[in-house]
Amino acid sequence: MKKVMFISSMGGHLTEMLELKDIFKDYDYKIVTEKHKSTIGMKAKYKSKIEYLMAGSKDHIFRYLFVIMFNVVKSFLIFVKFKPRVVVTTGAHTCVAMCYIAKLFRKKVIYIESFANIETKTLTGRLVYPLADVFIVQWHSMLKLYPKAIYGGWIF
To answer: Given this structure, which CATH class describes domain 3-151?
Structure first.
């Protein structure tokens, strides 16, 4: 069975990713998200299928820089341990390192741009677009910004 990693930041990005839950059963999967009081309860449902990265906020820049460095190392360890063939992500900052790690190991990256963006690129989209094997947008208007993207419609 193909190993697929689903990774996203908490909040709306995670909500979007969990809309894909019907396809989880088709794969040997791993969910990666930030550890936070809003996500910790997922462990009861997903048990060994979930891993957590450290949550961080750009509001506290020095702590955030530490969190990013920590998460890069932890992302590498999670990736090497699970060995996915594909990484699927809905963003945001939590996924960038994992996408680059996947490409380093010549694995596929599928990125789904945020539903919230209709006319502007996200920072994560700009960072992942050049390396994504499949880049999906949820609005036709986003095809102007990402010409190699695929319009997939709303994830909700």
So the answer is: alpha beta
What residues does 33 pair with on adjacent strands? 52
CA distance 114 to 125: 9
pTM: 0.95
Say if CB 149 and CB 136 are below 8 A apart.
yes
Strand pairing report for 86-91 and 50-54: unpaired
Distance between CA atoms of residues 48 and 139, nearest Å: 34
pLDDT tens readout for residues 101-123: 999 999 999 999 999 999 999 99
User: Hey, is 23 helix, strand or coil?
Assistant: helix
DSSP string of 60-90, one letter each residue: SHHHHHHHHHHHHHHHHHHHHHH--SEEEEE
